[in-house]
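Researcher: Quick test of sequence recovery. Tokens follow.
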């Protein structure tokens, strides 16, 4: 499939598409822009669209024999914008529901990215997305494109879309085998929505543990975890941990506190929490909150904390 990049030339920025044609790498120009920042934004969002759309069609895993090939219906969202809402109702498996949710938000970000550019450039970019959809549908031919592109197609995958990521979603099923897939998928989609709608770029999904994690890689700072309720019998939880034994090759994390939420919080409140956590000092400050008090700037009460 296609990999997008940008190249500055004579004061303008070319948006380039590189793909395999037979045994040759071919690079073509999608369009040209004046603003380098906008070109970079489009490169990022187009690669996200292609990653999420292509991943289920090229996926090979030990679970394929049990579950069958991943569906191909999500490709229609690249061709018909009215089909996008279907991306948030997909089944088959937890990982496929994740991939289609990522595609939904990537397409939403694409809409936002092209909203302010000249109409001719917007048309070129949207036509490129449509061509990706046409090529994916044509190549799959109802049987998937796994054998066509092989195990390592041109391009890149985000962590959760690569083989290790798929395995982590299977591990996440762990003690929830009895929970309906629709229930699990709803909890997972809430994490994807929060991750994609926050302005905090330090958020990532730790799927085996059902958590959104905020960390900036500095052992001096605490880590924030937001865990949804994968089933009706469980509850949402906000956890703060701190690094200990930082002199070791592999430092440990100590639990500091929990905010166990009595009901599912509004998505806006989770996004606000993640937005505030963009500043490591805020998480460090929250770590001092005592039981019965709310994390500063939020309505989330501390329900349990470590001694000392």
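Model:
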């Amino acid at each position: 499939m296609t990999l997008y990049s940008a190249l500055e030339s004579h004061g303008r920025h070319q948006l380039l598409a590189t793909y395999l044609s037979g045994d040759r790498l071919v690079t073509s120009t999608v369009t040209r822009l004046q603003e380098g920042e906008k070109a970079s934004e489009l490169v990022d969002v187009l690669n996200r669209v292609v990653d999420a759309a292509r991943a289920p069609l090229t996926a090979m895993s030990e679970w394929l024999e049990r579950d069958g090939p991943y569906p191909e219906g999500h490709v229609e969202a690249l061709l018909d914008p009215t089909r996008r809402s279907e991306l948030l109702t997909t089944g088959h498996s937890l990982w496929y529901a994740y991939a289609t949710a990522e595609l939904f938000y990537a397409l939403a970000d694409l809409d936002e990215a092209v909203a302010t550019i000249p109409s001719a450039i917007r048309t070129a970019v949207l036509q490129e997305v449509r061509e990706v959809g046409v090529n994916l549908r044509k190549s799959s031919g109802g049987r998937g494109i796994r054998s066509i592109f092989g195990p390592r197609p041109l391009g890149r995958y985000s962590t959760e879309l690569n083989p290790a990521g798929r395995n982590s979603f299977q591990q996440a099923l762990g003690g929830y085998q009895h929970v309906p897939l629709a229930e699990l998928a709803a909890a997972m989609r809430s994490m994807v929505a929060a991750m994609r709608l926050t302005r905090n770029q330090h958020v990532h999904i730790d799927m085996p543990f059902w958590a959104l994690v905020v960390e900036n890689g500095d052992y001096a700072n605490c880590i924030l975890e937001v865990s949804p309720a994968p089933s009706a019998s469980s509850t949402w939880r906000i956890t703060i941990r701190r690094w200990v034994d930082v002199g070791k090759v592999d430092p440990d994390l100590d639990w500091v506190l929990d905010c166990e939420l009595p009901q599912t919080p509004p998505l806006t409140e989770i996004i606000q929490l993640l937005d505030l956590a963009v500043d490591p000092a805020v998480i460090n400050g929250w770590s001092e909150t005592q039981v019965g008090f709310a994390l500063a700037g939020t309505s989330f009460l501390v329900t349990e904390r470590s001694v000392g």
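Strands lie at 3-9, 12-21, 24-33, 203-206, 211-214, 223-227, 237-244, 252-260, 304-305.
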